[in-house]
Design brief:
The protein is about 60% helix and about 0% strand. The protein is mainly α. It has one domain (about 35-295): Ferritin. Helix 2 runs antiparallel to helix 3 (about 75-100) and helix 3 (about 75-100) runs antiparallel to helix 8 (about 170-200). The longest helix is centred in the middle third of the chain and has 29 residues, at about 170-200. The radius of gyration is 20 Å and the shape is globular. The chain starts with 6 loop residues before the first helix and ends in a 6-residue tail after the last helix. It comes from Blastococcus saxobsidens. InterPro entries: Aromatic_CoA_ox/epox (IPR052703), Ferritin-like (IPR012347), Ferritin-like_SF (IPR009078), PaaA_PaaC (IPR007814), PaaC (IPR011882). This is Ring-1,2-phenylacetyl-CoA epoxidase subunit PaaC. One of its GO terms (biological process) is phenylacetate catabolic process.
């Protein structure tokens, strides 16, 4: 009987029969063909730090969404959440690769070794205090209602930023934003439809949706507070000052909640962005232990 090639053979043969590292070695460079020159007048360290902020938000939220696989109320929702997570993971990969190219790898490169791609080193070999994500994305999922509220808030915020980043002077950020804005429009609409369905549904679904809103709203305390890095890069035409998205975000969220017959809680007072400076709660430690566990246990693993 003739040998029948499998998909695994094809993957192996695609790279000359060499074993591939389980977390990305051998895959195409995510920045191949993109101009990675840092714009004039921009500190590469600032650009790298900003890419970590956006990349970590996407990576951590993607990980949270994958926790619903096999647990969502319907198979269709598992597929939808998995697709949203994959979109966010794609954004994270580009952003972390850009951060690595800007030279912000730090200790993760030493731990990962020289053969691991920058984006994998940053995802799998940084400690929690080196992550720059917000508490909004790091918080546990809760029930499905809370997850939909958090997804609505997080995607509304991110869409407002990426829409503006399409005009960034950095070609990588501009290219990412052009594609990501389309993805996030779907993500936001998906979450909004579920919040409307739950909020204006049964008494129990409305109760759960309102509880989700009440739980998520305090996590908005620092999302509009810019870091010094964001201020400098916004002034240079590279980044977006999150305070400039406040009116759009609050209008969208208020409109959706009112149509869902849900109460809009008082907006929390602005606080300094703790997560952007690496200050996180134990929930991120737990999430990263699962995200990074295999890579750290077998840093040279091949398949």
């Amino acid at each position: 009987m003739a040998h029948e090639e499998t998909v695994y053979d094809a993957l192996d043969l695609a790279h000359g029969g060499e074993g591939q590292w389980a977390f990305g070695t051998g895959f195409d460079d995510p920045l191949a063909g993109v101009d990675t020159t840092v714009p004039d007048g921009v500190d590469p360290a600032d650009l790298g730090a900003y890419c970590l902020m956006l990349g970590d938000d996407a990576l951590v939220l993607a990980q949270r969404l994958t926790e619903w696989i096999t647990a969502a109320p319907e198979l269709e929702e598992e597929v939808a959440l998995a697709n949203i997570a994959l979109d966010l993971l794609g954004q994270a990969r580009l952003l972390l690769a850009r951060a690595g190219a800007a030279g912000v790898l730090g200790r993760s490169r030493e731990l990962a070794g020289p053969t691991i791609p920058d984006e994998d080193a940053l995802a799998c070999f940084r400690d929690p205090d080196e992550f720059r994500c917000t508490a909004l994305v790091a918080a546990p999922n809760g029930d499905f209602g809370r997850t939909m509220v958090r997804l609505l808030v997080a995607t509304t915020l991110r869409l407002a930023v990426l829409t503006r980043l399409r005009a960034s002077r950095d070609p990588v950020l501009a290219a990412l934003a052009a594609k990501g804005a389309h993805e996030l429009t779907y993500h936001r609409d998906y979450a909004a439809r579920w919040v409307l369905r739950l909020g204006d549904g049964t008494a129990e679904s409305s109760r759960r949706a309102q509880a989700g809103v009440d739980d998520v709203w305090p996590l908005l305390a620092d999302v509009f507070s810019p870091t010094d890095v964001e201020r400098r890069l916004a002034a240079a035409g590279v980044a977006v000052d999150p305070s400039g998205t406040r009116a759009e975000v609050t209008d969208v969220l208020t409109t959706v909640l009112r149509r869902a017959t849900l109460r809009v809680p008082p907006w929390p007072a602005d606080e300094a962005p703790a997560g952007r400076h690496g200050r996180h709660g134990p929930e991120l430690v737990d999430l990263l232990s699962r995200l990074q566990g295999l890579a750290r246990q077998h840093p040279a693993a091949t398949w």
